[in-house]
Amino acid sequence: MKYAFTIIVPLYNERENLERLEQVLSGYLRKSAMQPACVLFVDDGSTDGGSALLEEICARQPDFFFLRFARNCGLSAALKAGFDVCTSPYVGYIDADLQTDPDDFDLLLAHAAEFELVTGIRTQRNDGFVKRVSSKIANGWRRMMTHDGVADTGCPLKVLQTATAKKLPMFTGMHRFIPALVQMAGGTVKQVPVRHYPRMAGKAKYHLFNRLWGPFNDCFAYRWMKKRFIDYTIDATNLD
Question: Domain tally for the chain?
């Protein structure tokens, strides 16, 4: 309850990145624009031996916490778990590969009180050709289907008002539609350019097939949900 800002870091088999995550994130917490801040790792059932190291890191860093799934459930489930337990007014999200910079959270936090979601736009992307092209196709398809107007839905650097994050409809693949879901729930979205770096360690969990086929199918699930989304305003009540 003492924290103003929680950074969720979903991870799956990222043992090679854990010590770097500790160094970079602990450094950011000391200077974050939103104080006090903490980190919540959500271990999505890792099998690379990194879970024990993660516990050691959280034991020596007083503002680091973790959840560990009994089995691999996917990125959307990891985010949902983080949102469910978050008690700070604002919650952020960054990928464990650190291709985005935690320091850029400050760029997003500058607008967090005004917008329910502030999302990054990766500039000068440092990914391979196939990943950049498939991401561009997937982003274009999502924009056409959701009309969310967001240039880089998949950017793994976001800040949300926690009350909004907890209201988002949750489903597998939800992480691809956070801006559209925020808008569906009546929230507003701000886009801010952020830096992007090459992956330094570990292996990407997405490839050409799941980067394109998943979003293609999930867009139809989003459209179905949007038509049936329940939204109401209470005009009066006698409840205490």
Answer: 1
Q: Residue 51 is part of a domain; what is its CATH number?
A: 3.90.550.10
In the chain, which ranges are continuous DSSP H helix?
15-31, 50-60, 75-85, 105-109, 129-146, 162-167, 178-184, 208-228
Give residue-wise pLDDT tens across range 138-194.
Answer: 666 666 666 677 878 888 899 999 999 998 887 777 788 899 889 888 899 999 999
Residue 240 covered by a domain: no
Structure letter (DSSP) for residue 35? S
Q: How far apart are CA 120 and CA 223, in angstroms?
A: 24
For residue 83, the enclosing domain spans 5-228
pTM score, two decimals?
Answer: 0.82
CA distances from 66 to 47, 50, 81, 155 (A): 16, 12, 11, 23
Tokens coding 139: 């982003």
108 domain residue, yes or no: yes
Instruction: Answer yes or no: is 234 within a domain.
Output: no
Instruction: Give the burial class of 199: count Cβ atoms within 10 A of its Cβ; 0-12 exposed, 13-18 middle, 19 or more buried.
Output: middle
185 within a domain of the structure (yes/no)? yes
